Amino acid sequence: MVYLPAHDAATSAAEIAGLIADVPLATVVTSDGNTLSANHIPLLLESGSGDDRLVGHVARANDVWREGHHEGETLVVFNGSDHYVSPTWYPSKREHHRVVPTWNYLVAHVYGELVVHDDPRWTRGVVAKLTGAMERGRDDAWHMGQAPTDYLAEQLDKIVGVELRISRIVGKFKVSAHRSSADRGGAADGIEAEAGTTPLVVAMRGVGAVNC
User: Fold this and answer.
1) In 111-195, where does DSSP find H-type helix?
2) Averaged over 97-117, what is the pLDDT?
3) Residue 103 in contact with residue 82, Cβ under 8 Å?
4) Residue ranges per domain, the chain?
5) 45: helix, strand or coil
6) Torsions phi, psi of 100, nearest 5?
7) For the domain 6-85+102-178, what is the CATH code?
8) What pLDDT score was predicted for residue 211?
9) Residue 179: which residues within 8 A CB-CB, separation 6 or more?
10) β-strands 53-59, 74-85 pairing
11) For residue range 117-144, what is the model confidence (pLDDT) as tens digits?
12) What is the helix, strand, coil percentage profile of the chain, to 5?
């Protein structure tokens, strides 16, 4: 279980879903009963009728999908926006200097059972969903129908579908929620000056909506 002070707990399902959609490349941690393995896999969150799941695919050459390589519970980590926080950004530093550096970040830990779909129709559907999500909004969006049929079939044969049947999600949005609004605003200003208006900055400015 992730270390999770109450003020860092992200309780908004919509906020967590938004993070997952923004950073679909997940770290998937599995065990063969003895050794931990980590794979980096793009995954989509699907919700409906109480059965939330993550779907994606892996290379057939990747042993993670084979029996015995994903025993027990699987952990999927989505790392969102993050940034170092300098004590010089806190207005309170000028008052008492009782401040130290920290690191703010957005993260979601998703737990569940990893299910394999070695089924061309299922896998093709997931590839279509992933492609549709990633290509959305592009002027010249690519879609599967643009590839030659024989080539596409050859490529699909090289991958295997995977699904995480979600049992629980833990969201941690470390956004200086425990500090004063002035210090939190100063930290947000500092991050924005160095990195632009990132999702972390937006979360820090809307801390009341994130940690509700």
Assistant:
1) 120-135, 149-156, 181-195
2) 96
3) yes
4) 6-85+102-178
5) strand
6) -135, 165
7) 2.30.110.10
8) 41
9) 90, 187
10) unpaired
11) 999 999 999 999 999 999 999 999 999 9
12) 35, 35, 30
